[in-house]
Fold these 4 entries.
Entry 1:
Amino acid sequence: MDDTDAAPHWTPDDFRRYGHAAVEWAARYLETLEDRPVTSDVEPGWVRAQLPASPPDAPEDFAAVLADLDRVVTPALTHWQHPGWFAYFPTGASGPSVLADLISSTLGVQGMLWSTSPAVTELETHVLDWMAELLGLPDRFRSTGAGGGVIQDAASSATLCALIAARWRAAGDGPFDRLRVYASDQAHSSVEKAVRVAGLHPTQLRRIDVDDAYAARPDHLAELMAADAADGLVPALVVANLGTTSSTAIDPVAPMADVAAEHGAWLHVDGAHAGAHLLLPELRWIGEGLDRADSFCMNPHKRLLTNFDCDCFWVADRRPLVAALSVLPEYLRNAATESGAVIDYRDWQIPLGRRFRALKLWFVIRSYGAEGLRRHVRHQTALAQDLAARIAAHPRLELSAPHPLDLVCFHHVDGDEASEALLARLNATGRVFLTHTRLDGRFVLRASVGTQATEARHVDALWALIDALA
């Protein structure tokens, strides 16, 4: 038998030639990004209408594939890396990170076990210890002790893993009907989703009241937990927000830790977006109380120039997490695992398989250095503070919430209808894209500053639009 019927695989020379073309396309995209509208105006179904009804039978030339990126794909994109992107949350991407993903895909390794690629596991462990040092996290989150870090795809998965570990610590294999979870109504929707996925009923999630700054009230948490305990229920998990999605409210972690400890509940701190600000010594106050937390997460893919997906998740004690998630079939048994001398990250996450995500975080840290990352976060935060000052001085606008970091929430003094109209007019320009939320029932515009490409002149341009259209 010979290889005449083998598929037409690319040779290394093909890969080199087409790879150069793909990188050139990517560089040209970045060069022209500012000239594009931030959002797409295509109608539903437009993309599929541009595509053939059936797949090609014969191989197509790669140049045609790249051409269709311009013809079909980019006209229908919302450009998350655009300098006029002020929506949702900051988005991370940088040259080192993108190239690391290319190399990770080239290697095609599977890091479910230490033995399936030792470098995947050990580099991840080391980089998570680096990140703990950069953020000034407590020693209990380092791999040198009972805890350690792992990279999840997103903070939603980190919250789910925290709940599963807390569930195990509180009830083992069950039943789980007496368990209770606590989070404010400003917490990310992933908390409620985690409750559902983990097999709890939505009514087992208790909502903590918030104060005037939209931060959770420890006194109300204490009331809820005491009442549940008195009823024979088991407080299992408390979720504190290190920056809420709607307004970047900072929950008081330290007093919430006191309340959680009274009932033996797991305290998870969600710093998905705002946690990156711990890089800055002057903002370390937002993490007061982290030394009492059982777990903490933050997303380099939001703020630290690392493209999606990359969530750093640390636990102070890995044993409940591993015990809850470890399933070892015969076909995964190996000498390294049996020795107990290695970490198998399959036991720290929901799926078995895992990508080499640590590579891109390693590339970014080495390419920027700690000081370069601090400069990026500090500069973007300063741009947001400048925008907030301009809004505060405007006669037709008001700030809607405190703005300690890089998110500015504001509204029109004439009410919701005027605020909604202002948002629509801003986004209709195609030059910027903002989103909204509701705080105390009020329609609020959100301006999130943070893409790599956003400079002072882009924030100036945003302000000029706001001033003109308000």
Entry 2:
Amino acid sequence: MQGNLGESVVSILSTTGLEPELLEVELTESLLIHNASSCVSTIDSLRTLGVSIVINNFGTGYSSLGYLKQFLFDTIKSDHSFISNITNDSTDVAIASAVIRLSMDLDINVVAEGVENRRQMDYLCQQKTSGIQGYLISTPLSAKSYSNLFHSLKEGKNNY
């Protein structure tokens, strides 16, 4: 919202030496609603650098399918409110399935937020969701704890 996100990201990438392809910038629908015109150029400049753009909490604000065309996201994060009851609510199943299918048709990754149990994960895997996020995998972690978890998963030391 400060208007210098692109410049800040370039500076941070330069300072840290991080490859742009390893960075994802998450934007919320509310940010896009209030700053759509300025977001287009910022998103374009970040994508040109190789940074991935993610729309977070998709479907909870004033969702516009036009955003999917206008902003060219790499990933959509489906809000947890549509995931929490997918094993017993036909409306949530329909919404989750539609978001997943639309994402697949547009060649956009879709991550389901708020996955808390194995039944939810199994359903989402059957639907070919790109990824999941939630307490089933882990509670929020510090950077050090995340690093430890990442390395244990990478080495195949997990229960999933």
Entry 3:
Amino acid sequence: MMFWRPQTRVFLDRICIHQHDNILKAQAILSLAGILKKSDSMLILWDPTWTERLWCLFELAAFLKSNESKQVGGKKVIIRPTFIGPISIAIFMTATVAIIPTQMTFMNGKPTNIFLPLALCLIFGLIVAYSVVSTLRNYFRDLDIMKQQLLSISLDATRSACCDREHLDESGHRIICDRMVVKKCVDIWFGSQEAFENTVKSEVLNVLVQDLNERVFTTPWSLAVLVPGLWALTDTSFSFSRVSEAWYEHPTVLGILVTLSIWLTAATFIKSLVVPVCRLTRRKARNFTFEVGKNLAVLFALAGFILFII
């Protein structure tokens, strides 16, 4: 981590495009097509404001345009919502904390008093679970809004940081308008502003909808955030495995098989249940009180069903 330098080259527009020198900035924008064409993949950190931003739509549309002559899959577009990091850490930490009292039920063969730590873990878990349900329902509502925005997209209506600052930098000096330079690039690359907007309404929209719906909450993701369950199951399985001369009933072999099967099944099942339910119940309630009640209803319904299956 300290001395090995990664060989992958990364182009980060905010850093690599000069933000203060007007000439260098215009040259960089006009050269962006070459950079995108030479790039093997594009990482998009998505949030609800992404659709409104001129630069975001322009770069993704240009990246897809540069890949027209290549086979599908020749270049990768990786889209990750910005909340996926915090929510993954929260689920992982909650699962880690939850296994501690469950593994302390018996110490030295005697039952221990775990009611207080178990109650604290339950409260903490409910808070995190409520946040997860609320976040997921908001996320799928944002996707609906994104579709509507892209279907009625207009290049002139998108936001640009320079226009928001009235074309002045931090020192009060005039800066060029990104929108004017981008429009010239759009005319060169797409032929017209209308052709660019049609690309956004079709190709860009399809990529965003598919990735944000199907490639965010994947099975590998659910296995990763619920890996603390694997630790707990490993300890429990090995504890209850009985010694036998048969290799398939040996504690080590049997423990591994039982642990992996339960962990893989449970993690996949929970993900396959929670995500679709939050998508189906994404419609917002009439006011804040009803919205909180709806989140709680979804949470307890999911928890009750999972516990019943277990």
Entry 4:
Amino acid sequence: MMGIILIATGGEKYTKFVNPLIDSINKYMPEHQVILFTDDMTKAYDKTTCIFQKDLGWPRATLNRYHTMLKQREFLLRFSHLLYMDIDMLVNSQITLDEIFADGMTVVLHPGYPETFERNPASTAFVPEDDKRHNYYQGCFVGGKTDAFIRMCETITKNIDTDDGNGIMAVYHDESMINRYMIDNPPAKILSPAYCFPGPAHIRFPERWMQQPYQTFVPKIRHLEKLDQASWKNK
């Protein structure tokens, strides 16, 4: 069975997305168990295991998400596959297990920011600016076979701890770390942005998001609040 990992801490700004996302997952995703890390334990959700996680604030809530997951390593190892999704997403089309998983990790192409890598050579997420060989992936939807997913969590957690010890924070936090990891450990499956596409009200830079071939498909999963990265990146 697949475990689908969600994180919603920090109050109504994030918890407002929980019910709609879980309802859409239960409707459209293959057999699964939702694992919700949250600081609001007052609610119960169908097919969902709730695990308390205190709010770490911005940007630690996103940067340290893989630390959060590893705290439940033994529980997560019960599942055949693991999938992390940002809480402000909505599944709107039927999805099968074979469609999103292969023998390793699965990532989603990022059409809006094709090469926004970490350029600080002191960071463990560093990618040289003159290296144009690599895809840039979104951090909001990543999964794989459980052993591969846990290995990724372990490496990213170690790299963030190393950066912390050196007083460094990667420019796009966990997403920078994921992209460095996928260079060193190429993914088994690369999905199109149809699996994480911004809702029409939140499309920024439409000349990027709506370029060929992206306007030709029907999004299967919406990212409801996909904002301009320049407004939140670590500077």
